[in-house]
Amino acid sequence: TGVIQSSTAMSVMVVGLVNAGVIALRPAISVIMGANIGTTLGNGLIALPLGPLGLILAGVFSLIYCFAKSEKVKNIALAGMGFALIFYGLNLMTGGLRPLRNLPEVMALLQTLTADSYLNLLKCVFIAAGVTAMI
């Protein structure tokens, strides 16, 4: 799930491997359960308000990285630092877009977006791409 970012795709691949006889049923069930549990825990972790702690956690993990002797501990510290910076970045993006909720122009634009035809769908895609580029 961590590599392909989809527990559904992972489940489909594992079922295909079981049908082909590459993987036995018991390990396949374990892989599918692990993917679904990992997705659930990952989404729960993202929902936690860890953004303000992101820089502090990144600092702690960087200190662990600097003073660690073991290569395994250094790799774990790098992974922790990456996750902490992701949470801090999400916090920055959320805070930057929060004032737009109070602008009537933005709300009016969002209410006009309907994907009921191909032209309107393209309009929605281009507006979403523009907003993503601004972030």
Written account of the structure:
This protein is an all-alpha fold and 135 residues long. The chain folds into three domains: 47 residues; 51 residues, no CATH class; 33 residues. Helix content is 76%, strand content 0%. The chain contains six helices and no strands. Helix 1 runs antiparallel to helix 2 and helix 3 runs antiparallel to helix 4. The longest helix is centred in the middle third of the chain and has 27 residues.
Overview features:
single chain; 135 residues; mainly alpha; 3 domains; 6 helices; flat
Short description:
By secondary structure, the protein is mainly α. The protein has helices at 7-19, 25-47, 54-67, 71-97, 104-112, 118-134.
What is the helical fraction, as a range of percent?
over 70%
Gross morphology: flat
- Helical/strand content category: mainly alpha
Please mark out the parts with pLDDT under 50 across 5 or more consecutive residues, or reply none: none
Q: For the report, how would you describe the main beta sheet?
A: none
Number of strands: 0
Average predicted confidence as pLDDT:
85
Radius of gyration: 21 Å
Report the sheet-strand fraction. under 5%
H/E topology pattern: HHHHHH
